Amino acid sequence: MKPSVKKPLLYLSFVGLAALAFAVVDVLIHRSGGTNLGSYVPWGMGVVMYLLFVGFSAGGLLISALTQIFGMKDLKPLGGLATYAALVAEVCAGIAIASDLGRFERMFNFVFSPSLTSPMWWMFLFFSSVLFVSFMKAWAFAKLDDGIVSFWSWVSIPVGLCFYFTNGFFFSVLTGHGLWSGPVIPVLFVTAALLCGGALVCALAWWSKTDKIAVAKLSWIVLWMLVVFAFLEGLWLWIGWQGARVETVAALKNLSTGPGAWAFWGGHVLLGLILPLLLLPQAKDNPGLAAWACLFILIGFAGARWAFVVPAQSVAMLPGLDTAWQHPRLMLTYLPSMAEWSLAAGVSGLALFGFIMGPKVFPRLYGSGPQPNQAS
Q1: pLDDT value for 174
Q2: What DSSP state is assigned to residue 68?
Q3: Given a cut of 50, is residue 376 above it in pLDDT?
Q4: How far apart are CA 347 and CA 109, in angstroms?
Q5: Do residues 136 and 154 lie in contact, with contact meaning Cβ atoms separated by under 8 Å?
């Protein structure tokens, strides 16, 4: 990355880190009182950022699957970078969801009060597992040990798939919100994660000048992942509309014409789907253009996650519930508070800082990866 670009981005990440410090202090002092969440809209910016970074973290899984299962050795140079990016994204996702709880110590309830029948407990288990596996993979890449890298790459594939599947499964069983429930959701979550993880690796590899040939090849895979994702998302929306459940149709109308419709149409559909679909077919021999297209996918995915989380909660789960009691915490509308925006800016700044400093602090992860003759 050119110093003229790197320096402003580094300063921007410092602003984000300051915002993160403010958000963490606010959680410690006000718990969830600093948010605009309520009884009817209990999930907001914290969940959006968690799902966003969970998607970003799947690059390591994608590269492991392509190199180990499908034998695409040309992508092997991206393995260390993908693992490092996954690790950074997983840390950011963890901070986002821990802050959303309002009390960080509640995370330990998963350990001290486990419930094997709870999808959320399984989600926590697999989140801890992918974090551990990513750390071990990064350690193996730093040691330049091809055998250990291969072992942890194989382990990461089933663990990662289970993690992204359980995130989707968690939403699919919430039948109170028709827009979330259904068998398409887990598959959509896995596909979305692989798409965004691949797009992040592609963009980072280009700007860190890791391997241009691998970037071009990965961008082609990202293009096909984008096509599959667009099909599945269209199928999800079409099934919801055809099902004709009153609350589902109302949520779809809010998604497409409500106050946050700009995030869906402008951020997700236009910037995150249409523009990359136009650019990526022309980027086969132009990795720079591919990297920009992947960056648009990542930005658009923020709009996709907002459109998934918030509009579904804008419809009363019981008719008349929204008018039965009047209280600021009993509203169906939601706009993030200053503390929630700070959290979003904070975890984004932390990720940006990690991605900028990665090549300098962990050069072996951004290198050509372990080779057999370098094994210890």
Answers
A1: 86
A2: I
A3: no
A4: 23
A5: no
User: Could you tell me the CA-to-CA distances from 122 to 84, 86, 256, 285 in Å, in that order?
Assistant: 24, 20, 32, 42
Average of per-residue pLDDT across 238-242? 92
300 touches 271 (CB < 8 A): yes
Among 87, 39, 41, residue whose Cα is nearest residue 61: 87
303-327, pLDDT tens digit by residue?
999 999 998 898 887 777 778 878 8
DSSP 177-233: STTT-STHHHHHHHHHHHHHHHHHHHHHHHHTTS-HHHHHHHHHHHHHHHHHHHHHH
DSSP 115: -
261-284 pLDDT, tens per residue? Answer: 999 999 999 999 999 999 999 988
- Report the C-alpha gap between 214 and 48 in whole angstroms: 31
| Helix, strand, coil percentages in the chain from 3-state DSSP, rounded to 5 | 75, 0, 25
State how far the alpha carbon of 22 is from the alpha carbons of 85, 94, 105, 340, 343, in Å: 25, 17, 18, 10, 8
Note whether 51 and 44 are within 8 A (CB). no
Contacts of 113 (CB under 8 A, 6+ apart): none
Query: Which one-letter amino acid corresponds to residue 251?
Result: A
Residue 171's SS3 state is helix
Tell me how crowded residue 220 is: count the other CB atoms within 10 A of its CB.
15
Q: Strands (DSSP E) along 19-124, which ranges?
A: none
Distance between CA 159 and CA 163 in Å, rounded?
6
Radius of gyration of the chain (CA): 20
Q: Could you tell me the end-to-end alpha-carbon distance of the chain, in angstroms, rounded to an integer?
A: 31
- What does the mean pLDDT of the chain come to? 90
CA separation for the pair 185, 229 (Å, rounded): 11
Section 356-373 average pLDDT: 72
